[in-house]
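Quarterly update from the structural biology core.
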Amino acid sequence: LVVPGFEFDLAPPTITGAADTSVRAPRTAQRIRVRYHVSARDDVDGAAPVACRPKSGSFFPVGRRTVVRCSATDRSANTQTAKFAITIRPRSGA
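Predicted structure, tokenized:
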């Protein structure tokens, strides 16, 4: 099917920045705020919005591994998902 002046977009956006991360927490912290950056780019639309849960800037518990799930959808409703883990490690030492 060919429609003049219209480009069919069947490919989802590409998500970047979704990489496992380990963060050291201060000795007395029970949770810490973590900021991360995830972006998406679509071949047709260019930059695509990304939604992640938990959001960047959320508090993460010390001593735990939390999985962050992200998704990006282009204007043609093609969706890509990604997940990565943020592990908060307690600072050791005396």
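The two ends are 69 Å apart (CA to CA).
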